[in-house]
Specification:
Blueprint lengths: L19 H4 L4 E9 L4 E7 L17 H11 L3 E5 L6 E6 L11 H10 L2 E4 L6 E6 L6 E4 L2 E4 L4 E4 L12
Antiparallel strand pairs: 1-2, 1-3, 3-9, 4-6, 4-8, 5-6, 7-8
């Protein structure tokens, strides 16, 4: 059993920047950062607005955007999250560890952002990006290196913190 590292600081949620394409769907959760001894790291655990645990595979545990936003603002959750479903036709692309402290974005991540040309936000840690795009992929999800892509049975933490592209590679 290892001692937990300090709880990660999470970027504040900017709900006004989250597109209606997402906010209009009833597939939202709140989340809390929870230490996992067996993995030696923090993880994001989905919850219902009332505090009970949620599941990314159980629509009965999801809520409307407004309910989750209010729970985040009033009940001390670490953030809100959007659950992907095949029916919604929205794909989530998670680019990990691609944003430097000064805001500079790795070239490989910038290429993905430009290729998808869709709503892109900073992850709660500020070191990654989430891209939301209409489409489909032939599998539930996949992970390769610092890139994860999902169409169902997963949730992304949502910040509404719009991407500001800074190409600082001289």
């Amino acid at each position: 059993m290892s001692a937990p590292s300090p709880k990660p600081t999470c970027l504040k949620v900017f709900p006004e920047n989250i597109p209606e394409l997402l906010t209009s769907l009833p597939q939202w959760v709140t989340w809390r950062a929870v230490w996992q001894d067996d993995r030696g790291k923090w993880t994001k655990v989905p919850h219902q607005p009332d505090g009970r645990k949620a599941k990314s595979t159980d629509p009965a545990t999801w809520a409307e955007f407004g309910e989750c936003l209010e729970a985040y603002q009033v009940r001390g959750f670490d953030g809100i999250g959007f659950v992907f479903t095949e029916e919604a036709g929205i794909i989530g692309v998670d680019l990990d560890k691609c944003v430097a402290e000064d805001g500079t974005i790795d070239e490989w991540a910038l290429e993905a952002v430009h290729r998808f040309n869709s709503f892109t936000e900073l992850s709660p840690s500020g070191t990654g990006l989430h891209i939301y795009v209409r489409g489909d992929i032939p599998m539930t999800g996949t992970k390769r290196g610092h890139v994860e892509i999902y169409r169902q049975s997963r949730f992304f933490t949502v910040t509404g913190r719009l991407l500001e592209v800074r190409c600082g590679h001289d």
